[in-house]
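Self-study notes.
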Amino acid sequence: MVNEAGQALFHVHNVSKIYCMGDVQVNALRGVDFDLRAGEFVVILGASGSGKSTLLNILGGLDVPTSGEVFYRDHNLTAAGDQALTTFRREHVGFVFQFYNLIPSLTALENVTLVTEIADKPMNPAEALSLVGLEERMQHFPAQLSGGEQQRVAIARAVAKRPEVLLCDEPTGALDYTTGRLVLEVLERVNRELGTITAVITHNAAIAGMADRVIRLSSGRIVEECRNPRRIPPADLSW
């Protein structure tokens, strides 16, 4: 990565999001303010319904706020149209979701290759799979892989286009403790070796220990933001 260490790349200013469900208004986010800096690992923590998935979708250009502004470098995402947001997602963002969304008829290598074919300066697909420890599983189909292996393919797919930002929505939510910890080790390695801004949203407070910074959401508001004095290796986490 060529980012200056610690440079603020994302600026989120007074962001609110209101969903209208019939006659009912749901305030998913209320006046959220924070920055994301180059190379940092951030955990966005909150219970179900706290607004964390909405926030992640706005950061990734999958949704837009009702009010407030989101800037990525010099891109004003709140003023961007659909085509500009598509370009932003393609060029700058990798996504990892709770469910792996792999194409079942393609091998692990082919699933990753699909993304590299539309990226400007992609990683070699085999290199991406090696980064997540799947050198020996490249020719396996999703049905031949464990849940943790499928999630690691999904991470390889996300990082193969060399995104500056990796957004992870409950990446261990469908996994047992041992497998989830392996996936967190992969995310930590990607952040450390590639310098990718990594934001993980989770309801699991134990994961917060591995972050540079923790942002806690409740009822759509940031209620706490703190910096860890040191990052705890995923292998030392327990829940």
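Second protein, same conventions, sequence then structure:
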Amino acid sequence: MEKVAIIDMGSNSIRFIIMSIADNHAYRLEYQHKESIRLGRGMNKTGRLSPEGTKRALECLHAYRHMMEVMGAKTCIAVATAAAREAEDGRAFIEQVERETGIQIDIISGEREAELGFLGTVNTMAEEDFVLFDLGGASVEITLVKGRKALQSYSVPLGAVTMTDKYSLADKPSSGDMAKCRKYVQKKFEEHVAWVKDTNLPIIGIGGTARTFAKMDQAAKEYQLSRIHNYMVEREDFHKLAAEIQGMDFAARKKLEGLSNDRADLITAGSIIMETLMHYAKGKSLIVSGCGLRDGIFYEYYGKKYGEGAIASDVLERSVRNFLGLQEQPMTHLTRVHETALSLYDQLRELHGCGPRERQLLGVATWLHDAGKSINYYDHARHSAFVIAHAPLYGMNHKEQLIASFIAGFHHGISGKIYRAYRYASMLNEEEWKLVRRLAVLLALAEASDVTYEGTIKELKATDHSEAVTLSLVASDTDDHGSAVLELRNLAKTFKKEYGKPLLIVE
């Protein structure tokens, strides 16, 4: 077991995580902490780091050093970004940190910061083409991504803290000051990132301001799922939120649901920077990434040390494989269920009429359908649904992850009682629930064929006739597969209800 500590000291906040890597190379987050330090407060006027900010940063770093010792993190990768990079006393402060805490912090360039933010995003989202921005306190890193490759990137020297100070936007900003800020931001974009103009792509945002927009949009819509990563704010909703923020004073902003008090003074400047980028690039929507620079540091380290590569070739496949590596699961049985369910899906394609993406979601459900047994064997299908819905699985949007979870949740039977018990049931429409039920039946059939975990049934051959579907069992004459036959026959009624045809079991 290896434990890796990662520190990201920015202009507004300092963040600390510890990742554990098991002997089988499966990894997970063990600990995280974030503190608002405002290291870049006042830099526009003094050119130096905030004394209060450096004091808070040192307090955090002393605590982080102790936490690393307690948790056994032998490796520490620490970086500092725009504030330390641009302040005249930035290097001196980093040297002070090393003297007092023993933590070596690397002041990274804007280009390096953009690269790490890209790695954090591209390893946790399946988008192919997009404009990525990482908005911090003193800079915003912008990257143009095509085919999951970073084509252009630049660190523009403006951020939520520095623009708040420069244009007095913390309390009750005037329309004139906001207009000046907007004009300044537009000018900087034209100077440095003209290559994103009118790209008409999704905009993916990293950083506290982007996450805050997601939280506010979720609060306004009473969104049920408590997850930020890969949440989409539609273009019209984004501009509506920005206008609302920019029309309020500090006291009013503090009352906005989804907006934390420690960001209420910075959100106006942040919204202007984001809104200007949305207009300039003609962004289709804002997709919020909860993963960024720290995750990029980890994936780069992990990829080099364990031979995975810095960028996952298949985000969904790797995250499912990694999650399975953290569980104690009978992999031989899961493999049989997975292959059988996908085989049935392919054989009955014309009957269910679904495509390759739905096949992938069924695949996720098959691998993790028994994850709930780690909670309790009884009712473990519903426990599995909860686990899948909340697990760190990447490469799916929120609704797709829920669909995969519900497929697993119904693999021991479909009932209105279970449906009504699901917390997020209303997030799917009737057609999506129809899809869930149909695919859950295929998973149930696949599991039934290996109910004894012995692999006595080698294959299920499904044939769609005009009046019925036949399911022929391929097994050796010497194997006792009676238990599997019994389980399969018990599913015939459910199959007919969902597919509209009788299911005939042929031994």
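Instructor comment on the second fold: The longest helix spans residues 51-71.
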